[in-house]
Amino acid sequence: MLDPQTTTDKPQGAAASLLNGLAVLEAFSVAKRSLLGVTEISELVGLHKSTVSRMLTGLTEAGYVQRDDDTGRYRLGLGMIGLAGPLLSELDVRRAALPHLEELTQTTGETAAIAVWNGTNAIVVEQTASMHQVKHSAAIGTRYNKFASSSVQIFLAELPPEETDRLLAARVVLRDGYRGFEDPAHERLADVREHGFAVNDGETTFEEYGVSAPVRDYRGAVVGCVTASAPRSRVQYRQSQAILRDAVLRAAARMSARLGSWSAENASGASTAVTDPRGKRPEPLLPAAGAR
User: Fold this and answer.
1) pLDDT tens digits, one per residue of 103-119
2) Other C-beta atoms lying within 10 Å of the C-beta of residue 131
3) Residue of 233, 210, 234 lying closest to 290 (CA atoms)
4) Does the CA dihedral 234-238-239-243 come out positive or negative?
5) Which of 61, 106, 233, 267 is the most buried (most CB within 10 A)?
6) Is the pTM of this model over 0.90?
7) What span, in angstroms and rounded, lies between the C-alpha atoms of 16 and 10?
8) What three-state secondary structure class fits 128?
């Protein structure tokens, strides 16, 4: 059992709730098991089962734990990424991504990032910032839940349409005026699946341009999303949309190859040949102006 606090000046109210919540999270490391039930956690932390259940409900809503649908037990969630630096070093996708993120930034001169999906949000787990004074960047642990985000579209495109509809209809993923299966969002996700990348051209914030592509493991499952982001004005001035797109696709293929993706392994050494969902053929990959 975790050591209970036995002093007479126990924290009360919000402070007590916070400490109880932390004790519940610590139970997963003490038990050294990935899945724990309410009773097991209750015994470990010395709290009543009703208190533990209440803590787990709140922690689940915050993304710090996840409930396993088959067993009803709980595991740590990806929301912990924003709090626990050591967890990041254990993510294979992060280790595989870092050198390619550095190369992507060096090639394009823009910020490169890798995100993972926790079921409701795209969460940044690594980033290499642009060397430009004016740039777009996000702290590790930043979450995105807007449909217009290119990283969110990459992950939604992998889900069954019914699950995407549920997330959008419940406003877990935000899209103004969502109209169900008739909404253009579903057609857009079909384009993302077909062409292998997604673009955010000033849709989340007017001054941001982002392009994302999926990272796949040996099973072919999407385990991450690589994104290049830049000030929209610089992208428009340089007409670098195709440059960023091709560079992101190449980086995603190389990351996937490191994770054992057979198709990516075959594609990573070849030149990228894709068609823009808007029907335009991309320009050949050229160094970005000012990039080193």
Assistant:
1) 999 999 999 999 999 99
2) 14
3) 234
4) negative
5) 267
6) no
7) 8
8) strand
